[in-house]
Amino acid sequence: MILSGTILVNNKQHLEIGGCDTVALASEFGTPLYVMDEDLMRENCRRYLQAIQKNYPRGKILYAGKAFLVLAMANLVKEEGLGLDVVSGGELYTALKAGFPPECLYFHGSNKSGEELLEALEAKAGRIVVDSFSELEELLELARSRQQKTAILLRIKPGIEAHTHDYIQTGQDDSKFGLGIPEAKEAVRLVLSSAPYLELKGFHCHLGSQIFQLEPYRLAARVMLNFMSQVRAETGYAASELDVGGGLGIHYLKSDNPPSIETFVETVAVAVREAAEQENFPLPELILEPGRSITGEAGVTLYRVGVIKDIPGVRRYVSVDGGMMDNIRPALYQARYEAMIANKALQEPVEMVTVAGKACESGDLLIEDTYLPPVEKGDILAVFSTGAYCYTMASNYNRNPRPAVIFVRNGKPRVVVRRETYDDLLAQDVL
Ligand code: LLP
């Protein structure tokens, strides 16, 4: 919406989101503040569902909770009819507390603890996505001792490099995630011989995140179908599900040009259909796990401008009241963002500044060298595309309370996470 579509400005020349004046939101709820456009998240869920229905006979969309998961988000995803990918006992707990149907939960994780596996079994999570041989053995043991049958997918490393930041690339051979192909075949044999406790439904892979080029997905479809066909030839087992993960990129900068949800889904669906045909393999159910492309562009973080420092001939630092504790992505991945001054929404961006966070770290720079209208203390700075991997990766560094999260829709804001207090910061401390 914001970067890929139109920026809405009201008659006070204030940035508007979900029909709400962002400057009014900042005064009502305080700053920093995560503001999420509920309609846009719902629309993205629907676009995924429609695209899979249009392009593939049996498809499923799971929202990847790691991008942003709180009770209200789990509810939204449930209402929109998507499944949910959870990656820890905490995400599982959140989903269950929101009343998410357990059979629609897919439990991921590269190092699930015994307790987490038990929690997933107790919850009767729809699928456990097994990431390693040792997890498989542990799960088998647990399922056997509980006399409980559970459905699993095996996560495979397809050996494909996607073009994205090294830290968010996962499908290549040298990765801590998933089983290499020879190991995976051994795992299949173990599962098949362990019947009836573990029911192997199929395979999973995930290439990485913030991906703009779709060729790696076409390649992954061929690698995975070829692997499935080899497994069938060697063991007689024909997988009925293929989960190709998430990863579609979004606009962080106006110049970013990610494929649309429709193009992404169609490309993957066609690639899987073609690969299945080539291998003469029955079409598996196709599962996608988008996270960022559902919530990312729906989020804007509002900050209040504080100290402004000029270093003559070098740069102007504009400090805001948040930073790496509410958005670690610039410091961790050199991620770039765009911003505007919400209370000067129609003014020309004429001065080059660096937006600095308030953490005691020189590296806490939210946006280096960006153009804004003349900035003054007290202005409200809106940073776009912060709806994914910002709140979920937030910390209390320097004992800063984490911001509130609000959903906005039809001109109405609602708090979905209240702002932390100083007492919240002490809540776990023991003297
Ligand atoms: N499925 C699996 C197994 C994943 O590991 C991920 C993301 C997804 C789905 C969702 O990917 P998405 O559609 O959101 O790209 N913190 C990083 C991103 C880490 C992504 C981890 N896995 C960032 O801020 O860029």
Structural notes for this entry:
With 431 residues, the protein is an alpha/beta fold. It is 32% helix and 24% strand. Helix 2 (38-55) packs parallel to helix 9, helix 5 (114-123) packs across helix 6 and helix 8 packs parallel to helix 9 (261-279). The longest helix is centred in the middle third of the chain and has 21 residues, at 215-235. The chain is globular. The protein starts with 7 loop residues before the first strand and ends in a 5-residue tail after the last helix. Ligand LLP binds at residues 64, 66-67, 85, 108, 168, 206, 209-210, 245-248, 289-293, 329, 333, 389.
Compact overview of the structure:
The chain is α/β, with parallel strands linked by helices. It contains twelve helices and 20 strands.
Write the layout of secondary structure elements.
Elements: E1 8-9, E2 15-17, E3 20-21, H1 22-29, E4 33-37, H2 38-55, E5 59-64, H3 71-80, E6 83-86, H4 89-97, E7 105-107, H5 114-123, E8 127-130, H6 133-146, E9 150-155, H7 181-193, E10 198-204, H8 215-235, E11 241-243, H9 261-279, E12 285-288, H10 292-295, E13 299-311, E14 315-320, H11 329-333, E15 339-341, E16 351-356, E17 365-372, E18 380-384, E19 404-409, E20 412-417, H12 422-426
Parallel strand pairs: 4-19, 5-6, 5-12, 6-7, 7-8, 8-9, 9-10, 10-11, 11-12, 14-16
Antiparallel strand pairs: 1-2, 2-3, 4-13, 13-14, 13-18, 15-18, 16-17, 19-20
The structure holds ligand LLP.
